[in-house]
Amino acid sequence: MRQRRAAPGLDSLLAGIGPDAPLSERVAWLGRLVAWVRQDVPEQRLRLILQILDHQEPLRRAVAATLRSVVRETQALDLFAETGLPRAAGFFREAAERLAHRLLPRPPACRDLGDLLDRWFPHPRDARWLGALDAETVQRIAALWNEGRTAGEASWESLRPDLEDALVLLASRIRVIGSAPSLRQRLPETRLPELPFQKLGPAVESLVELGRSPADASSIAAGLNRVRTLIEATDQALDAVLGALEETGVSMEVVYDVERLRAMLRRLELLLEAWGDPDLRPERGLVILSDLIRDNHARRSLAGLGRDNLQLLARSLVERSAETGEHYIARTRAEYAALFRSALGGGVITAFTSLIKISLVSLALAAFLEGSLIGINYAACFVLIQLCGCTLATKQPATTAPALAGRMHGLRNPKQVEALADEILTLIRSQAVGILGNLIAVFPMVLLLDALWWKATGAHWVSPAKAGHILESMDPLRGTLLFAAVTGVLLWLSSVIASWADNAFALLQLRPALTASRPVQIVLGPARAARAAVWLDHQMAGLAGNISLGFLMGYVPQVAAFFGVPLDIRHVTLSTGQLAGAVATLGFRGLDAHTWISVLWGLAGIGALNVGVSFGLALWVAIRARGVRGPERRVILLALLRRLAGRRSAAA
Prior knowledge:
Blueprint: H1 2-14, H2 23-37, H3 42-54, H4 57-72, H5 77-81, H6 91-103, H7 113-120, H8 125-131, H9 135-145, H10 160-178, H11 181-184, H12 196-212, H13 217-248, H14 252-276, H15 282-300, H16 302-325, H17 333-362, H18 367-387, H19 397-405, H20 414-457, H21 464-473, H22 480-507, H23 510-516, H24 518-524, H25 526-562, H26 572-586, H27 593-626, H28 630-644
């Protein structure tokens, strides 16, 4: 009904312009017409326009001639070579440009077809309904376009010069960006002229010249095949650049350049399809148009800019974490036994840390000094655990999550999904074994240390008042779970710092630099300098992560207290050590059943939140970096639930 009432107004709108009007008026008229179509259900409104024009031949011819004249008198170079492609501007400059584009009025324009499409189709959903038009409607649009066209009148052919210029321009940009030192240094030894980036430009230029001359179809087909082969070779070179990041370190600049080049290659393929097929089907032409509109909206989006830069940052932090995390995933009985033994060692060392922390708190020092000493205590403990080859289980999830996300590929294959679910279960078992080893060792070790202290001094390490406070602090109803979640965030942050430090060590090539450093060689000698560089290369992530975690756990409660926020650290292994100290003072019989139940539930919650929060954050960043989409995540979750229930997919 609404469309029928709108039809009389539509008649006057359709008749309100002609091909002889000034270009600015024709552009404004077409904008009003598209705005009318975009309301409600665009597909139905478009069919209504076609139906009206089918019954009014003079009006149909005038509308068709007007449409062709607008396309003929506008420029499409920026539409083909600029619209929707990432640019070299930095994040803040790009964000400012996008914000200004959204908030500030734009000057009138009628020559740039890319800008006009942006004005006519201002919403991302426009690309969807344009690309989803049925074949009959598309054929009717094509028939309208050609209505009344004379033999000498240019149609889509008027866009061909801009299309050819765009091909040459894109190939030239790919040639320049791909030949930058930051990319060449990450490729195998190849002379500059032999790089596919260098060959692509001349190949595209030759193809365009061939198309302008009276060449036969076989020569053009051969030229197209050569260009497509070079595009494939360029893609492979970009894969090699990304593969080299494992060794050379992940640079956001390099990853951004690779993404820019991939986007240009995809656009080049899209334009080649349109250029190489003079009889391009209208349906395919409309899909290409919708792709250009979609790309343009993606480049205009502030949210998209933030998402893309987050993904680049995540990749720079995740790539090398995945390699570190592999060491904490046990798959065989021998690996589980080794993990359990290393966790026992970590628990023994943590016992000392728990008691030292209790002593530091009892000194009632100034906040900064107390936080510093506690941070040093934690950092020394974690570094000692690392150097002794032991394990602190709660530090595993933040590094194993990127390793897990690295396997999230080929998820349309049921066997691959089931294999990933099995890997997740293996990871869960590894975490359980590590935590169990820590707790089994830390509790009796604290009891032993307290007994030795009692024998030497006649007093328990923990005072009765402090013991009572420790038991109260583990009550899950007294903020313990919130503090455990905050500790999980700190565990994740330490893994981020570890990844950044490890990546920076590789990116700055500090291993060969330290090996060849003359001052270092004078102090250590050439052989020891080389061994020290190798040792630092292997240990840098662990050292940075452990030291940063220690000081985060020491300073964060003090900073929070400065702002009046009551915040504490709840780490499952350290809390178990403190519980053991309280039990040593009060005795097992000094705790009633209600207290034991509350404490045990508190410890279970602390462990679950330490692991769950750190693992969840690390996995979220990793899957963002790997580009794992929502549907793929749901497939993984369903497969995991089946595996937990002891079932497999029938397809697997």
